[in-house]
Specification:
Shape: elongated
CATH architecture of the largest domain: 2-Layer Sandwich
Number of domains: 5
CATH class of the largest domain: Alpha Beta
CATH superfamily of the largest domain: Histidine kinase-like ATPase, C-terminal domain
Strand order of the largest sheet: 4-6-12-14-13
CATH topology of the largest domain: Heat Shock Protein 90
Structural class: alpha/beta
Number of strands: 14
Number of helices: 13
Helix content: 40-55%
Order of helices and strands: EHEHHEHEEHEEHEHEHHEEHEHEEHH
Radius of gyration: 44 Å
Strand content: 15-25%
Distance between the termini: 109 Å
Length: 489
């Protein structure tokens, strides 16, 4: 509230003291009425203006606070947007890097394909053209035997071209998802015997003995008759190419131990328990207590080992080196580890696909291990597997090449002379076909002694007969009696 001082002592000292005490104005006596009213009016008007100014200042403070809050929220929103944008850019950059890597891989594959195909096409075409020209220009000067020999070469090289084109088309269809897959019940024993018979003349011409052994008279699988013949034909053709003398065998049997696994552990109790569990799952577990003995086995028939388990609870000090050693020899081999319950798995790696925790007990671990094996191998444990082995006594495969034999375009290096070189697609296609029908293909080999390719395919079991059919077969009731009894129900 404005204060106006009325005083008779209107000197400078009093005026200064009054103003210092907060007076808005000083009116000295005698005072003029009009002047006094005017000063009062000015004081009230000044008060009103001050009040309005304070209100406006308060409103402005509120506006500033609200705007500041809005700006802060907008800043936070922009920061979050920027963070998301950075994450998105990072993800897109990673996606682009992966795409570039895939594109580079495709380019390398295409370059390799063009190189292989151009060589594989040029070689037989050159031979066909050359011998055709000789037959055209020199037919009158050639003996009958020479003409037949040249025609045989042309026929042989034509077959080679046909195989090349067929392999390329098959691989393209498989990779594009356009392959037509039939699924029908076929007698695999008959397919094996028929395919062996087709190859008998060619093997006889090469003085190679063919042995066919089928432990069972008949077995049904679900598959495509033509594609299974294609796989067997490819394996037999390879066996012929790389076997100069001796024999080629085809063995068919039921294989209850449908998969093989190695266990590296110094804990014999754990090894025994796991062996019992794996036996129930129809898997053979081979126990080694040193990395050296395990590697010896992998070197000999690593292709026939389907998974590896390393016990970190007893070999933890050397676990990483053991895992790396196995991984270098068999990069694609599925691996699992064993650790103590509550312990941290210190060997986390993309190649470790499962962990089993101690203590291991059949009643609590069997179901988990069955699930683990299914994930690792891509096949649920099945006691009814048909094992078809194509065995040769040829040049064999170097240990370092075993993990690569089913890779696309891979051709095994060997200093020994070969009659034919292929595209490196045949075994890749075989693997795709067998795995499509729920099976596995593997190889074991010794350099200089020969190779054995195994096809494992699930047997299609006949549906169990109904009780009534069994009673009729055993002569306990007649069909009429059974029918009448069912009507009374």
């Amino acid at each position: 509230m404005p204060v106006i001082v009325l005083t008779a002592e209107n000197n400078t000292e009093n005026r200064m003291r009054a103003l210092g005490e907060g007076a808005k104005d000083i009116i000295g006596k005698p005072f003029d009425r009009n002047e006094t009213l005017k000063r009062i009016h000015n004081a009230l008007e000044s008060r009103l203006l001050h009040k309005r100014l304070m209100e406006q200042n308060h409103d402005l403070d509120v506006i500033v606070q609200e705007r500041t809050k809005e700006l802060l929220l907008e800043k936070q929103r922009l920061k979050a947007l920027n963070d998301n944008l950075e994450d998105l850019v990072s993800e897109r950059t990673e996606d682009l890097q992966k795409a570039n890597e895939q594109l580079a891989q495709v380019n390398n594959t295409m370059s390799e394909l063009v190189s292989i195909v151009s060589h594989e096409l040029r070689t037989p075409l050159t031979a066909i053209k050359s011998f055709a020209e000789i037959l055209r220009d020199e037919a009158d000067n050639l003996e009958r035997e020479e003409q037949e020999n040249f025609l045989n070469i042309i026929d042989k090289e034509s077959d080679r071209l046909t195989r090349l084109i067929s392999d390329l088309l098959d691989l393209q269809k498989i990779q594009a998802g356009k392959m037509v897959w039939k699924s029908e019940a076929i007698d695999i024993v008959k397919v094996v015997k028929d395919t062996a018979e087709l190859f008998s003349p060619a093997l006889a011409n090469k003085n190679l003995e063919l042995n066919v052994s089928c432990e069972i008279d008949s077995a049904t699988i679900l598959g495509d008759n033509d594609k299974i013949i294609q796989v067997l034909s490819n394996l037999l053709s390879n066996a012929m190419k790389f076997t100069e003398s001796g024999s080629i065998s085809i063995e068919l049997k039921r294989n209850n131990q449908w998969a093989n696994a190695i266990l590296l552990s110094s804990d014999t109790e754990t090894a025994k328990t796991l062996a019992d569990i794996f036996s129930e799952l129809q898997i053979q577990l081979i126990h080694f207590d040193t990395i050296e003995t395990a590697m010896d086995r992998l070197n000999c028939d690593g292709g026939n080992i389907h998974m590896a388990i390393v016990d970190l609870s007893t070999t933890e000090a050397h676990a990483v080196s053991h895992l790396d050693t196995i991984r270098k020899l068999r990069p694609a081999l599925p691996m699992a580890t064993i650790i103590n319950s509550g312990a941290e798995d210190k060997c986390q790696s993309s190649s470790i696909m499962g962990t089993i925790k101690k203590p291991i007990r059949p009643e609590t671990n069997t179901a988990f291990i069955e699930s683990l094996v299914t994930n690792l191998l891509g096949i649920a444990p099945n006691a009814n597997m048909i094992d078809i082995a194509v065995i040769d006594s040829g040049i064999g495969i170097p240990p370092e090449e075993l993990p690569k034999v089913f890779m696309q375009f891979h051709q095994i290096d060997s200093s020994q002379k070969r009659e034919h070189r292929g595209t490196g697609l045949g075994l890749t296609i075989c693997k795709e076909i067998i795995e499509h029908y729920g099976g596995k293909i593997c190889v074991e080999s010794r350099l200089g002694e020969g190779s054995s390719f195994h096809l494992l395919l699930p047997q299609l079991l006949e549906a169990k007969k109904k009780l009534g059919e069994i009673l009729i077969e055993k002569g306990i009731v007649t069909e009429k009696q059974l029918s009448e009894a069912l009507k009374q129900q």
